[in-house]
Automatic annotation (TrEMBL):
Protein name (record): Sulfate transport system ATP-binding protein
Domain of life: Bacteria
Single annotated GO MF: ATP hydrolysis activity
Keyword Zinc in record: no
One GO CC term, this protein: ATP-binding cassette (ABC) transporter complex
Keywords per UniProt: ATP-binding, Cell membrane, Membrane, Nucleotide-binding, Sulfate transport, Translocase, Transport
UniProt source species: Rhizobium fabae
SUPFAM superfamilies linked to this entry: P-loop containing nucleoside triphosphate hydrolases
Pfam family membership, one: ABC_tran
Length: 346
């Protein structure tokens, strides 16, 4: 189901946790809410669920205004970071719960509930464990049960609040891949909160980057990574460097010399040049380049990250090179040029 968040403001005791947030979630989409702690991700998720009500603004489920509807009426599937499974129920009973407690005509016959729960356990790859209790499962298995339980009621929207946050790195990675596969098979409209950029970029159809109670950018993983629209997004997603430069006659100048990068159309004055560590190429000499001394070097997977001191107490710059290129460098004179970059003013 399509969900439309329209000009939402949420205050807690006059403290604005969200200001004027609008977001259109397409039916069947997997959306990540990504941002630092306190940026308002969980508040937005709880508003969609109906666990909080907005101070201003509306939330539509399809064409219907859901703002005044309860959590039950919205028919939401929710998975929290800390598996909220019922400890005294078996895995099968946990997954069946949402259907068993339905009243009257909406409750399927017993045999159907059992069949559906077993199908879901098969989907989350836990067949055979239906008689176990939550304490007899690993953290990752418990989260898979929580997801099966959330999906059992055929929710309009599936909301996941840092579902893998409490798990170790390898399990997180496996579950990420698995969640994407499940989503592709079931097609539930899904919103998940994370502060892990890798998780958001790898999993989501679109990423909503939040900061200080507002949306900074909405885009596909490629758009937010390759074309960040603000210094905040550039700095928050992936690694980045920032250099203060001068623009003069459409030319970018650093330390009094031209970098040979074309900024035609930009007015003269100071600007911040942002670029990623891997978007650089080495230069033979310092001419038309940024030059510095290597102060440290570390291997990260297939590349080497080199930290450069570019003088005058400026923040260090990090560049990323294939090890074969990095190993040929003269530590005392490293010169490079950004190959992809973006200017921000003000
Ligand atoms: N019930 C509440 N009462 C008062 N303030 C609240 C309440 N819930 C959230 N806030 C405040 O609203 C802001 C946004 O909180 P929220 O939990 O939505 O952020 P978040 O991005 O999910 O953070 P985290 O990643 O740490 O969970 C924070 O400043 C928080 O202190």
């Amino acid at each position: 189901m399509e969900v439309r968040v329209q000009n939402i403001r949420k205050e807690f005791d006059r403290f604005p946790a969200l200001h004027d947030v609008s977001l259109d979630i397409r039916s069947g989409e997997l959306i990540a809410l990504l941002g630092p702690s306190g940026s308002g991700k969980t508040t937005l998720l709880r508003l969609i669920a109906g666990l909080e009500s907005p101070t201003e603004g509306k939330i539509f489920f399809g064409e219907e205004d859901a703002s005044k509807k309860s959590v039950q009426q919205r028919n939401i599937g929710f998975v929290f970071q800390h598996y909220a499974l019922f400890r005294y129920m078996t895995v099968l009973e946990n997954v069946s719960f949402g259907l068993k407690v339905r009243n009257g005509a909406r409750r399927p016959p017993k045999a159907d509930i059992r069949r559906r729960a077993l199908e879901l356990l098969d989907l989350v790859q836990l067949s055979g464990l239906e008689k176990r209790y939550p304490a007899q499962l690993s953290g990752g298995q418990r989260q898979r049960v929580a997801l099966a339980r959330a999906m059992a009621v055929e929710p309009n929207v599936l909301l996941l609040d840092e579902p893998f946050g409490a798990l170790d790195a390898q399990v997180r990675k496996d579950l990420r891949k698995w969640l994407r596969e499940i989503h592709d098979r079931t097609g539930h409209t899904t919103v998940f909160v994370t502060h892990d950029q890798d998780e958001a970029l790898e999993l989501a159809d679109r990423v909503v980057v939040m900061s200080q109670g507002a949306i900074e950018q909405i885009g596909t993983p490629d758009e937010v990574y390759d074309n960040p629209n603000s210094p905040f997004v550039f700095g928050f997603i992936g690694q980045s460097n920032c250099l203060q430069v001068e623009i003069s006659d459409g030319d970018i100048r650093f330390d009094g010399r031209s970098l040979g990068l074309n900024a035609s159309g930009e007015s003269d004055g100071t600007a911040q040049l942002y670029f990623r560590p891997h978007d650089v190429r080495l230069c033979e000499s310092a001419e038309n380049c940024i030059a510095g001394q290597s102060v440290s070097s570390r291997r990260v997977a297939g590349t080497r990250h080199i930290e450069l001191d570019i003088g005058n107490d400026r923040p260090h710059i990090e560049i990323e090179l294939p090890p074969s290129e990095a190993d040929r460098l003269d530590r005392n004179r490293v010169a490079f040029k950004p190959t992809r970059w973006k200017l921000f003013r003000g």
